[in-house]
Design a protein that fits this description.
Length: 185
C-alpha cells in the first residue's frame, strides 16, 4: 500500500510540473522599461543601496554614534566623527559623521545597521544597480549616500506605492525629477 501512495504522490507532483511548463512566462520589462528603474518593480521592504537621511530642518540625522559600524557583521562601514560648531552646523547633535563610507564589496545587505541606528539616519533605499568593473567604485562615500532632501519631503522622490499589489513603481517624470520638492532644501 505504501508503494501506491508514493507513486500517487510522484504523479501528482509531476502533473503540477507539466501543467506549469506549458503556461506562458511572466517577465518584467527590464532593462527596456520606462522610468528610473527601467521597468523593474520592487516590494516596499526591498533592501537596496543605503541612504543617509536628513531631519526636518535639512540637517544630517547621523550623530556618529558608531552603532551601525559595530552591528555590521561584514565590517563594511567606516565612520570618522567630528564636532559640530555654531558656525558650521551639520547635524542636530554635538557630533556628525565627517567621513561615512560603505564598502559594497563586503556588504551583505543584512539590515543590521538600519536596526541599530537610534536616529533612523541610515535606511535601505531602492538602488539596485551596483555592478562595476572596478572594485574601488563600490566604496560609496557620504556624499553619494546622503539624501538630497528630508524624508518627509520625499527623499526617495522617484518611487511611489501605486504599482500592482502595492509594489513600488517609479513616479511620473515630472515628480521623479524633483519638481515636487521645494527649492532650498
Amino acid at each position: 500500500m505504501g508503494i501506491v501512495k508514493n507513486i500517487a504522490a510522484i504523479a501528482k507532483g509531476m502533473s503540477i510540473t507539466f501543467s506549469e511548463m506549458f503556461k506562458p512566462t511572466e517577465v518584467e520589462n527590464y532593462p527596456d522599461g520606462p522610468g528610473p528603474n527601467r521597468g523593474a518593480m520592487f516590494q516596499e521592504r526591498y533592501r537596496g543601496m543605503h541612504v543617509l537621511q536628513r531631519d526636518e530642518n535639512g540637517l544630517e540625522k547621523c550623530v556618529a554614534c558608531f552603532l551601525c559600524a559595530a552591528a555590521c557583521p561584514s565590517n563594511c562601514i567606516y565612520i570618522e566623527a567630528a564636532e559640530n560648531t555654531a558656525e558650521n552646523r551639520i547635524s542636530g547633535a554635538e557630533r556628525y559623521a565627517k567621513v561615512y563610507n560603505i564598502d559594497y564589496n563586503r556588504c551583505i545587505f543584512c539590515g543590521y545597521c538600519v536596526e541599530a541606528c537610534p536616529t533612523d539616519a541610515i535606511t535601505h533605499g531602492h538602488g539596485f544597480e551596483l555592478a562595476t568593473f572596478n572594485v574601488s567604485n563600490l566604496v560609496y562615500r557620504k556624499e553619494q549616500l546622503l539624501a538630497g532632501v528630508p524624508a518627509h519631503m520625499g527623499s526617495n522622490a522617484i518611487y511611489s506605492m501605486n504599482g500592482p499589489e502595492g509594489r513600488l513603481m517609479p513616479k511620473p517624470p515630472q515628480l521623479a525629477s524633483g519638481a515636487d520638492v521645494p527649492k532650498g532644501t
